[in-house]
Amino acid sequence: MIVTMLSALPNIDYAFTEKNVKALKNIIASVFVEDKNLRNKYLFKPYVVFDADTPESVAYQLYDDPNLWWVLVVINDINNPFTQWIKDSGRLSLEIKETDNQLLWFMDTRKKRIVDDVDHSKYLKMLQAGKILPEYINPVFRRDYENALNEKRNHIWVLEPSYVYEFAQEYEWLFHELDEGA
């Protein structure tokens, strides 16, 4: 099943040298685990990450090996764990100082979209004048946005532990193939 999942990845032309170009699986830049695969309860399960958890600590808790942190990153389509992993509340507070809680946009809850520039200016003037905004217009401030985004980050998918070593072996095999092609 893992081999099938990896074979579905797109090929890219990778130039080892100017004359040595091979079609390879771009597992770092193009891995995307589709939602339908994540719903497969035999392979994947939802997991709640806490403030102090790191990819390494979660990998250790689940797989008894902190070096398998990359499996969590790949499965959750995380390109940069330093910016896309849950942030502890202290770090989040440092990033968003009280004085840096600027207005980002206005959300129109009727249309479920961000208002355009013209409406943004209109609602900003209303807000600055102390007027009441229409009930369907919600201002979105940076602190609220970052907190909501961080709350979403604490819900991840994990690979069922019984499959993690097979998954890792397939990736090692792909890297070995890449090394031999160089």
The proportion of strand residues reads: 15-25%
Average pLDDT rating: 80
Spatial sequence of strands, sheet with the most strands: 5-4-6
Q: In angstroms, what is the radius of gyration? A: 22 Å
Helix amount? 40-55%
Oligomer class: single chain
The number of strands is 7
Total DSSP helices: 9
Poorly predicted tracts of residues? none
Order of SSEs, N→C?
Answer: HEEHEHHHHEEHEHEH
What overall form do the CA principal axes indicate? elongated
How would you describe this protein?
This protein has helices at 2-7, 35-38, 55-63, 69-75, 81-84, 89-95, 117-128, 142-153, 161-181, and strands spanning 11-15, 21-25, 44-48, 103-108, 113-114, 137-141, 155-159. The strands form three sheets. A three-stranded antiparallel beta sheet has the order 5-4-6. The relative contact order is 0.17. Helices cover 45% and strands 18% of the residues. It is elongated and about 65 Å long. The longest helix is centred in the last third of the chain and has 21 residues, at 161-181. Strand 1 and strand 2 (21-25) form a beta hairpin. It has 182 residues and is α+β, with helices and mostly antiparallel strands. The mean pLDDT is 80.
